[in-house]
Specification:
It is a single chain. This protein has 465 residues and is of the alpha+beta class. It folds into two domains: 297 residues, 3-Layer(aba) Sandwich (Aminopeptidase); 121 residues, Alpha-Beta Plaits (2-Layer Sandwich). The chain is built from 13 helices and 18 strands. The strands form five sheets. It has a six-stranded mixed sheet. Strand 4 and strand 5 form a beta hairpin. Helix 1 runs antiparallel to helix 3, helix 4 runs parallel beside helix 12 and helix 11 crosses helix 13. The longest helix has 23 residues.
């Protein structure tokens, strides 16, 4: 294998991936049935059960020196994060080591009524598998498993490539024990190449290598104006209620065109590929007559500019509304940070803006803060070239170097812990995946080609001294 061109193994790898696809889909479906939501308020036993199932999959490959479930403390506290799966196999004869990352936890499903089929009952409709985690990111887990299966079926189990696996259990809840986990298991996780399988592709026929990621700052904002609720008829018009203050304060975060209006949040001037308003209308599901927001090229707005979204609000429901002035209102704010700015600087700018613009002397409090830095991939290394070549061989078209509007904050932690490793951000998603949303789904053609891409990449690294 080491002295043979990888291209001669492409037909065998292709056959192995295709032959193993039914098993990969069945294994993925079994994972999707486990409601492994890592957020507070959900049963942590489901995340533990998911970790057990993932461990069994990697144990079953029979190629690792060790496979274990491990946990690490969150920050400086005694509280442990959710269980992760860690596997390792030492490199031999000068071969590189590749670390394969994905996560087995999922977002909350939301209301069952918003799903066309139950969120934790994997359902095949056409060429897509529907279910929470079917794409994000249990398909990433299974892409690793299936790629190793195809690689071993083709080259045998006596290979020299070093393998490390880290399947996290709390990525959707902020990766709060991530840095401690890296520190505790640094020796087993150390690698020359790190594949983070948690991103998307340009479309169902064109692969992407993600080279830019926005950072994020999320927090709970509480606005208070009254010591207790008061009758809206008796005091409305003179006493400022918290809902009024919250609406006015939130309105200061955006300019009239919907772009962010917070001084100190920066924009990255990297050029982006063409992307039409029509494609945005379709992929973002804008209703007829609804216009896009912001200014500049669309992909610049999505990848290289900041964004602020109110993702939740605690206030009386319409059904339970009474004629009272609200004393306090809380909202959840999610901010995306352009590459080139630290999350700490961005948070300081947002905090200063909210403090300066609180109306009527309203009291504001920011709590439950999570910060993650943006990331720009160094595309000059040999691993990027190998990954793009593997994508071309597996998909039959040239890959796109793409940014992504979402965030994978822990990548900056990987870089800090393993500064010499080359980072490859790949994935199994596509524009119709609807990750985090109702009716999340995986395109099975994308899944197959993503598995083949990784199997080819493993073969290339096995041939590299």
């Amino acid at each position: 294998m080491a002295n043979s061109p990888v291209s001669q193994y492409l037909p065998a790898l292709t056959d192995a991936v295709q032959g193993g696809l039914p098993t990969a889909i069945a294994d993925l479906s079994a994972l999707v049935r486990i409601p492994s939501v890592s957020w507070d308020g959900f049963d942590p036993a489901a995340v533990a059960a998911s970790a057990d199932a993932v461990k069994a999959l990697f144990d079953g490959l029979g190629v690792f020196d060790s496979v274990e479930i491990a946990r690490a403390p969150i920050g400086d506290s005694e509280r442990l994060g959710h269980p992760a799966v860690l596997a390792s196999r030492a490199a031999r004869n000068g071969r590189p080591t590749i670390l394969l990352y994905a996560h087995h936890d999922v977002q909350p499903p939301g209301s069952d009524e918003d799903w066309e089929s139950l969120p934790f009952e994997p359902t095949l409709r056409g060429d897509r598998l529907y279910g929470r985690g079917a794409a994000d990111d249990k398909a990433g887990v299974m892409a690793h498993v299936a790629a190793i299966r195809a690689f071993v079926e083709t080259v045998g189990d006596d290979f020299d490539l070093g393998l490390a696996v880290f399947i996290e259990g709390e990525e959707e809840f902020g990766s709060r024990s991530f840095t401690n986990f890296l520190s505790a298991h640094r020796e087993k996780l150390s690698a020359d190449v790190i594949v983070v399988a948690d991103s998307d592709n340009w479309d169902t026929e064109t692969p992407s290598l993600t080279v830019a990621l926005r950072g994020n700052v999320t927090f709970k904002l509480t606005v208070s104006t009254l010591d207790h609720a008061s009758h809206s008829g008796m005091f409305g018009g003179a006493a400022p209620d918290a809902m009024l203050a919250t609406i006015k304060l939130l309105g200061t975060l955006w300019a009239d065109d919907g772009s962010v209006a917070v001084a100190g949040l920066t924009t990255n001037d990297t050029q982006t590929p063409p992307y039409t308003e029509e494609r945005l209308q379709e992929e973002a599901a804008l209703l007829p007559g609804v216009n896009s927001i912001g200014h500049g090229d669309i992909l610049s707005r999505l990848w290289m500019q900041p964004a602020i979204t109110v993702t939740g609000i605690d206030a009386p429901t319409v059904q339970n509304a009474s004629n009272t002035l609200s004393p306090s209102v809380s909202v959840r704010i999610s901010s995306r940070i352009a590459p080139g700015q630290t999350a700490a600087d961005a948070y300081a700018a947002i905090e200063a803006h909210l403090t300066a613009n609180a109306p009527f002397g309203a009291h504001i409090q920011l709590s439950d803060v999570d910060r993650g830095n943006p990331f720009l991939v160094d595309t000059t290394g040999w691993a990027v070239a190998d990954a793009k070549a593997a994508m071309h061989e597996a998909w039959g078209v040239e890959p796109v170097e793409a940014g992504i509007g979402g965030s994978i904050p822990f990548i900056s932690d990987l870089v800090a812990e393993f500064p010499d490793a080359q980072i490859l951000v790949t994935g199994v998603e596509d524009p119709d995946t609807r990750a985090h949303s109702p009716n999340e789904s995986l395109h099975l053609g994308v899944f197959r080609r993503a598995i083949l891409t990784e199997a080819v990449l493993l073969a290339k690294l096995e041939s590299r001294a």
